[in-house]
C-alpha cells in the first residue's frame, strides 16, 4: 500500500518518543521508505540506533556532521518526502514551527518541505491547553498543516487529560487514509472536457500615471479555484488582476488584466467558448471619470475626483448566459444574506458565494475563507472556516452537480 512512498518521520523530545518506534516499524512493514530525523532531546529518550534498525536508513540528527551525500541534506529530505510526520510533537517544536524558527535539522527540514506536514502532539494536558500552544496550533492549521489530535487519558506525568499521543495504529491509519485520499484526488477528473473561466484578484483604476484606486484582493480565492479546477481536469482560463502570488500550474490560458474595462473586454472574448464562469475577482464599481495623463499637482485645497460607474460585468454576462453555469461572489460587511441574495437575481447567477468580511479568517488575503453558498432558489449552505482550496472544491462540486442535472 505504501510501497512507493517516502515518509520523513520527525521525532521530538517527549516520553512518547518510544511510541514513534512502533509507528516507524508499522509504516515500514506497509512498504514505506522511512527517514527519521531526531531532535537532540529526542535522543535522551530513544537511541538513534533503534530507528536506524527499524527504518533501514541512517538517522539524521545533526546539521553539521560529516555529510553522507553531496546534496544539502535537509533540502534533499524535504524534497524527497511524500509526507512529513512529526511524532511526537512537543509544545517546543510546535512553537518553533509556528514562529518560523529553524535552529536544528528537524525544524529546518520541516520549514523547507512543500509536502504535507502532519503533526501528532503529545504533552502534559496543561501544556496542551495553554492558550499559547492553542494559538500556535491554530496558526499552523491556518497555513495548511494537519494535526492528529492527542487522546485523553492518564499521562506519563500522572495527570489525566488531553495530551496523550494518539494510538500508534490510528496514526498509521491516518497516513494510509491520507495517501488513499490523494490517490482518489488524482483519479478524480470529474471536470474533464469542461472549459472553466475564473476571474481573480483586484482591478486597478488609474487616476493619473502615478495614482490609482484598487482594493484588498490578493487573488488567493480565485487562484485556488483555478488550481483545483485544473487538477480536476478542466481547461481553465484564468483572468487575473495584478497579484503577488504564484500562477497555478496546468492552466489552459492565463490573461492578466488591470482595470474593470480590461476584464470586461477579455471576458467577452472568451465567454462564448466557456461552460462555466466563476467570478471571484473584486471588480471596481467605479473609475475616475477623467484620467489625467499628467501627474496631478497638489494644491492647497482638497482634491475632488469624480467617479463614473463601471459596467457590472456579471450582470452583463447574466443577460447572455444561455446554458452556461455562472457563479458570483459577494464580499459583504453587513446583511450578508440579503445583499448576496439580491445579487443572484440581478446578475442571473446559478449561485453566489458570500463571504462575511468582518469574520477573522474570511475574505481578503487570508489562506482560509468562511462562506455561505446561496442557490438561485434561495437555499443556503453554511460552511466552517476552510482553506481556500477546500472552498474551491465545494464550489466546483456544486457546479458539477448543476451540470449533471442539466444532462
Ligand atoms: O482575492 P482574495 O484576497 O483571496 O479575496 C477573495 C475575495 C474576498 C475577493 C473573494 O472571495 C470575493 O468575495 N470576491 C468578490 C468581491 C466583490 O467584488 O464582490 P461584489 O459583491 O462587489 O460583487 C459581486 C459579484 O459581481 C462578484 O462576483 C464580482 O466579481 C462581480 N462584479 C462586481 C462589480 C462589477 N463592476 N462587475 C462585476 O462583475
From TrEMBL:
Region (Phosphopantothenate--cysteine ligase): 196-407
Listed EC numbers: 4.1.1.36, 6.3.2.5
Pfam family for this entry, one: Flavoprotein
GO biological process, one term: coenzyme A biosynthetic process
Parts forming coiled coils: none
Cofactor: how and how many bound: Binds 1 FMN per subunit.
Single GO cellular component term: phosphopantothenoylcysteine decarboxylase complex
Pathway this chain belongs to: Cofactor biosynthesis; coenzyme A biosynthesis; CoA from (R)-pantothenate: step 3/5; Cofactor biosynthesis; coenzyme A biosynthesis; CoA from (R)-pantothenate: step 2/5
Residues forming the catalytic site: 157
Annotated residues for binding of CTP: 285, 295, 329, 343, 347
Region annotation Phosphopantothenoylcysteine decarboxylase: where it falls in the sequence: 1-195
GO molecular function: FMN binding; metal ion binding; phosphopantothenate--cysteine ligase activity; phosphopantothenoylcysteine decarboxylase activity
Record keywords: Decarboxylase, Flavoprotein, FMN, Ligase, Lyase, Magnesium, Metal-binding, Multifunctional enzyme
Cofactor list: FMN; Mg(2+)
InterPro entries documented for this protein: CoaB-like_sf, CoaBC, DNA/pantothenate-metab_flavo_C, Flavin_trans-like, Flavoprotein
SUPFAM superfamilies tied to this protein: CoaB-like, Homo-oligomeric flavin-containing Cys decarboxylases, HFCD
All residue ranges annotated as the DNA/pantothenate metabolism flavoprotein C-terminal domain in the record: 191-401
Highest taxon of the lineage: Bacteria
Domain spans labelled Flavoprotein: 5-176
PANTHER family tied to this protein: HOMO-OLIGOMERIC FLAVIN CONTAINING CYS DECARBOXYLASE FAMILY, PHOSPHOPANTOTHENOYLCYSTEINE DECARBOXYLASE
Function, as annotated: Catalyzes two steps in the biosynthesis of coenzyme A. In the first step cysteine is conjugated to 4'-phosphopantothenate to form 4-phosphopantothenoylcysteine, in the latter compound is decarboxylated to form 4'-phosphopantotheine.
Family listed: In the N-terminal section; belongs to the HFCD (homo-oligomeric flavin containing Cys decarboxylase) superfamily. In the C-terminal section; belongs to the PPC synthetase family.
NCBIfam families assigned to the protein according to its UniProt record, in alphabetical order: coaBC_dfp
Protein name: Coenzyme A biosynthesis bifunctional protein CoaBC
Organism this protein belongs to: Peptostreptococcus russellii
Amino acid at each position: 500500500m505504501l510501497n512507493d512512498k517516502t515518509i520523513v518521520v520527525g521525532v521530538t523530545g517527549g516520553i512518547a518518543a518510544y511510541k514513534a518506534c512502533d509507528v516507524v516499524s508499522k509504516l515500514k512493514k506497509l512498504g514505506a521508505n522511512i527517514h527519521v530525523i531526531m531532535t537532540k532531546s529526542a535522543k535522551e529518550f530513544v537511541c538513534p540506533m533503534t530507528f536506524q534498525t527499524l527504518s533501514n536508513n541512517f538517522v539524521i540528527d545533526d546539521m553539521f556532521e560529516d555529510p553522507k551525500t553531496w546534496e544539502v541534506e535537509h533540502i534533499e529530505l524535504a524534497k524527497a518526502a511524500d509526507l512529513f510526520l512529526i511524532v511526537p510533537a512537543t509544545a517546543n517544536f510546535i512553537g518553533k514551527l509556528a514562529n518560523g524558527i529553524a535552529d536544528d535539522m528537524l525544524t529546518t527540514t520541516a520549514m523547507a518541505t512543500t509536502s504535507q506536514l502532519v503533526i501528532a502532539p503529545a504533552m502534559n494536558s496543561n501544556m496542551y491547553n495553554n492558550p499559547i500552544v492553542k494559538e500556535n496550533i491554530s496558526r499552523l492549521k491556518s497555513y495548511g498543516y494537519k494535526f492528529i489530535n492527542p487522546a485523553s487519558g492518564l499521562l506519563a506525568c500522572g495527570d489525566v487529560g488531553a495530551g496523550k499521543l494518539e494510538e500508534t495504529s490510528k496514526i498509521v491509519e491516518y497516513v494510509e487514509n491520507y495517501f488513499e485520499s490523494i490517490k482518489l484526488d488524482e483519479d478524480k477528473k470529474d471536470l474533464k472536457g469542461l472549459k472553466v473561466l475564473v476571474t481573480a484578484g483586484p482591478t486597478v483604476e488609474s487616476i493619473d500615471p502615478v495614482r490609482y484606486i484598487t482594493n484588498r484582493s490578493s487573488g488567493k480565492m480565485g487562484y485556488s479555484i483555478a488550481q483545483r479546477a485544473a487538477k480536476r481536469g478542466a481547461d481553465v482560463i484564468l483572468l487575473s488582476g495584478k497579484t503577488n502570488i504564484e500562477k497555478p500550474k496546468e492552466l489552459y490560458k492565463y490573461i492578466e488584466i488591470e482595470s474593470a474595462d480590461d476584464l470586461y473586454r477579455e471576458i467577452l472574448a472568451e465567454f462564448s467558448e466557456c461552460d462555466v464562469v466563476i467570478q471571484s475577482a473584486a471588480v471596481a464599481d467605479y473609475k475616475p471619470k477623467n484620467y489625467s495623463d499628467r501627474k496631478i499637482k497638489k494644491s492647497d485645497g482638497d482634491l475632488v475626483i469624480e467617479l463614473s460607474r463601471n459596467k457590472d460585468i456579471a450582470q452583463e454576462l447574466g443577460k447572455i448566459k444561455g446554458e452556461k453555469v455562472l457563479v458570483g461572489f459577494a464580499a459583504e460587511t453587513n446583511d450578508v444574506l440579503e445583499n448576496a441574495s439580491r445579487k443572484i437575481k440581478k446578475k442571473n447567477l446559478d449561485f453566489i458565494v458570500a463571504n462575511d468580511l468582518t469574520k477573522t479568517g474570511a475574505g481578503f488575503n487570508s489562506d482560509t475563507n468562511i462562506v455561505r453558498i446561496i442557490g438561485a432558489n434561495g437555499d443556503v449552505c453554511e460552511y466552517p472556516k476552510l482553506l481556500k482550496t477546500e472552498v474551491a472544491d465545494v464550489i466546483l462540486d456544486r457546479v458539477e452537480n448543476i451540470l449533471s442535472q442539466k444532462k
